[in-house]
């Protein structure tokens, strides 16, 4: 009997959940005094809900209405850079000077630019780049003022919009085409994001500033920011961002694989304080909210606010877009959309299934192993993968990917990147495991010569 497609079976939200989501969007629009606010939820790879509230006559936004998404643009640029890395056209450790002549940032690496640890200044040389045309800064040298570097490269996290302008220039240099065209061809079209663009396309929301002490509005300019565009130029819709969130969740081999996306959401920069609830990966913001790990990005431009958060554990994403310079807490709204669905309708796990096949030699490796006197258990997973876990949950556990040469590479935890080898004894059978010089034997401190430093010949004893 074929098991039902659980993801499809529970994709549509329950009425009570939908009402709670709409109420959260309504509260966000009302309390934030936003001309309009759109929210959306992606679950299991598809848009399952969207809702909007508007207080402006003649404006009835929906999931197909464009809003400017500001720094969410940076995630798209980071995807383009990681594609170049995966194709072997650059290394994340490359200094920018290897590819571009930018004296102001020549010592910064590609990875440091992605993680905002390059030490570059936060903003481009004045006037206010988000409200003025990019023709004022036609070349990369025009992006920097008297102090292009405010910290030593690699020392600390310091958010830099010009840093992502340089990454856009890097994409142009290595692809030989404007970064916006590269984005369209390599990311937007493969993902079906036809309503994401550098310039607004109808229907789109107008950007407004809301007076802090009176309920009146002021139109905000929407300039083409030129060289600074990779830092925050894009316009998109809730529906398109749901498609992008689905990609960020599982990857798409036409764009980037799941492994590269997992690398991007791994913390790459130290937090600014000990009591941190957020961080930064490679072009992605990271957050911890109520015990939940979220990744994505926030964005703002004059007249607009945007947030996209993905929870891989819940297979959910929350999206919030508003057309106000300040006021509505779209970050909290997007977070709450994820939380509401996860609370009202917890994810139903996929059914357990036996492996389609199992190599007897790998089965022989499973079971208890000991690092000294500390017990671990080795489990066999799909695709010849292994998982080493401490018994009782206290200790250093990791998952391992099988390699063609018969070894395994750590994927997470303390042993991420380390090599696991099976060492055979004189009889050819597995004798012990070598994990980056950590030796695991079949019994505690096995007296077979494998344990570094040797084992007392008297063996275990009572006192």
Shape: globular
Total helical segments: 10
The fraction of residues assigned to DSSP E strands is 15-25%
End-to-end separation: 59 Å
Q: What's the domain count? A: 2
Query: What is the CATH topology of the largest domain?
Result: Beta-lactamase
Which spans of ≥5 residues are poorly predicted at pLDDT below 50? 1-10
Main β-sheet, spatial strand arrangement: 12-13-14-15-16-17-18-19
- Helix-strand category: alpha+beta
- How many β strands by DSSP? 19
User: How many whole angstroms does the radius of gyration measure?
Assistant: 26 Å
InterPro entries: AmpC-like (IPR050491), Beta-lactam-related (IPR001466), Beta-lactam/transpept-like (IPR012338), DUF7586 (IPR056008)
Protein name: Beta-lactamase family protein
Pfam family, one: Beta-lactamase
Write a compact overview of the structure shown:
With 463 residues, this protein is of the alpha+beta class. It has helices spanning 6-9, 15-31, 73-86, 110-115, 161-175, 179-188, 238-250, 258-264, 330-344, 360-363, and strands at residues 36-43, 46-54, 67-68, 208-210, 217-219, 235-236, 278-280, 285-289, 292-301, 304-311, 316-322, 367-371, 374-380, 386-390, 398-402, 408-410, 419-424, 430-435, 438-441.
